[in-house]
Amino acid sequence: MEIVGVATNASSETVYNADVYGSVQDSANDDVLNSGRVGSIPTLKPGPNEFRLQLTVATSQPLPLKLKSFKASGTTQQLNASPNPYDDYTEFDDFGAQK
Fold this sequence. Notes:
Elements: E1 2-9, E2 15-25, E3 37-44, E4 47-54, E5 66-75
Antiparallel strand pairs: 1-4, 2-3, 2-5
């Protein structure tokens, strides 16, 4: 399913990597998510911002879904992604020997 909405950034600074939390329940009031994290929004400029989040829901969940208490939390500085610890940055010469 896709959640479409408007997030309002009331601060005067751009917010990056905003994690979105909230309650998602089906029509029987059963929780749809194991955690409260619904997704993330890469950038929220000051003021209203349209957003779209993808949500995977089992076909057995009775619709419609109820979305409650949504809130986003992020940082005002852009974060660099951590390198993958499984990447091998070892350099080799033309003969296959490690430099």
